[in-house]
Design goal:
By secondary structure, the chain is of the alpha+beta class. It has six helices and five strands. The chain has a single domain, classed as Nucleotidyltransferase, domain 5 (2-Layer Sandwich). The strands form two sheets. A three-stranded antiparallel sheet has the order 1-2-3. Strands 4-5 form a two-stranded parallel sheet. Helix 4 links the parallel strand 4 and strand 5.
Length: 165
């Protein structure tokens, strides 16, 4: 792979059934980023305080700064149309992204896949340790989707670099 993959990350109201996306962020191959809080649909009401402790995004912040679901889905489709973007938590992120696009009543015009599909067994085995080193080297003030996506992209680059040694 000549260029770094685009990486996506979502933050959510919780885990499991009835959880919903509250923030989506990604970094593209060229380094451009997108991040937005998501104004919940009327029937999205399951909130898990332990998830809020992880991402630090309150319901109040979402209601104040969140953007409408349709607007976010349109923006994502415009920016990612025809592309494949990768996630390190594909199982969760794909269901939340699917929920977002279902609620917006529009098809995803891009593909999302697991970053794992891009890694050899050796690279995958080094992923978590490398990610921790990247996190320690970057002074992040907040745990947010676009910052997490940038960390994952740097982790990917470092895992590839180290596997060539």
């Amino acid at each position: 792979m000549d260029k770094l993959p685009g990486i996506i990350d979502l933050e959510a109201s919780g885990f499991g059934k009835q959880s919903y996306p509250i923030e989506v962020g990604y970094i593209l191959s060229n380094g451009d980023t997108f991040c937005s809080l998501i104004l919940p649909a009327e029937d999205w009401n399951r909130w898990d305080d332990s998830a809020e402790e992880v991402h630090g995004i309150s319901q109040e912040i979402i209601l104040k700064a969140g953007k409408p679901i349709t607007e976010i889905a349109q923006t994502i489709n415009e920016q990612l149309s025809g592309e494949t973007i990768y996630s390190d938590a594909w199982g969760n992120d794909s269901s939340w992204l699917g929920l977002l696009f279902d609620e917006a009543n529009m098809p995803m015009r891009f593909r999302m896949d697991s970053v794992r599909t891009l890694l050899t067994e050796e690279q995958a085995a080094n992923w978590h340790e490398t990610k921790e080193r990247v996190i320690e080297s970057i002074p992040l003030k907040r745990h947010r989707a676009s910052a997490d996506a940038a960390i994952l992209q740097k982790t990917f680059a470092l895992v590839l670099e180290e596997s060539k040694k």
